[in-house]
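Hi P.,

Sorry for the delay on this. The queue was packed all week, but I finally got your sequence through. Input first:
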Amino acid sequence: MEPKISTKSSLIAPCGMNCGICMAYLRDKNKCPCCRLFDSDTPVTIAKCRIRNCRELIENDLKYCFVCKKFPCDRMKHLDKRYSTKYSMSMIENLENIKKYGIRAFVKNENTRWACPHCGGTICVHRGYCFNCGK
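Then the structure:
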């Protein structure tokens, strides 16, 4: 079965989060546009994100945290620990894979990794089930 999800590179946040599998992006009500599509109407969680608003990223116009000379910084390590513990996903590993294999290969892998085996929909990293069929 061909996956129905199609994560794009624009959905990969500077921290390595695949916004396409995020609960806030997948939900229908108050849908988050994604960290890279930031504007004045953006949800407060993005506006306050310390990594997305990192001075190093902004001042040096860095696309991903792994390019920063401070990578992985304490904020990144804290986020990675939380996601590794709660959701079995490593942001640092995601960024290392992007660096090693490139964004296209990473996105292709994400489309396979997070595809529901039952319907091909998207499995939410935060909920652990498919937002399409509920399995």
